[in-house]
Amino acid sequence: QVQLVESGGGLVQAGGSLRLSCAASGSIFDTDRMAWFRQAPGKERDFVARIMWSGDSTIYADSVKGRFTISRDNAKNTVYLQMNSLKAEDTAVYYCAAGRPSATIAYEYWGQGTQVTVSS
Fold this sequence. Notes:
Blueprint: E1 2-7, E2 10-13, E3 18-26, E4 33-39, E5 45-52, E6 58-60, E7 68-73, E8 78-83, E9 92-99, E10 109-110, E11 114-119
Parallel strand pairs: 2-11
Antiparallel strand pairs: 1-3, 3-8, 4-5, 4-9, 5-6, 7-8, 9-10, 9-11
């Protein structure tokens, strides 16, 4: 099992920045990828960004490219999401997720989420 705990959410004005953190614990060695998703009220959960525990591979949703940066600190088993130039439409609950290479689904483990609210 893997436990994920997000932090860093809050209220920010449009154009501002926030950095989210996701601390992973448990059987992290079983996982090879970490990602951020978000879910706005009344909408489905959407992919935001993904990073692998090794190498430099990252991918982003088109809606956040150039504004958000995903990174990791392997020594701390922590993944970050730096969010710049925030917009009102970025308002959502942000979830951290982890996946195993041998699993049938991309992401098996999820955090509890952290609220990000961007005021316009």
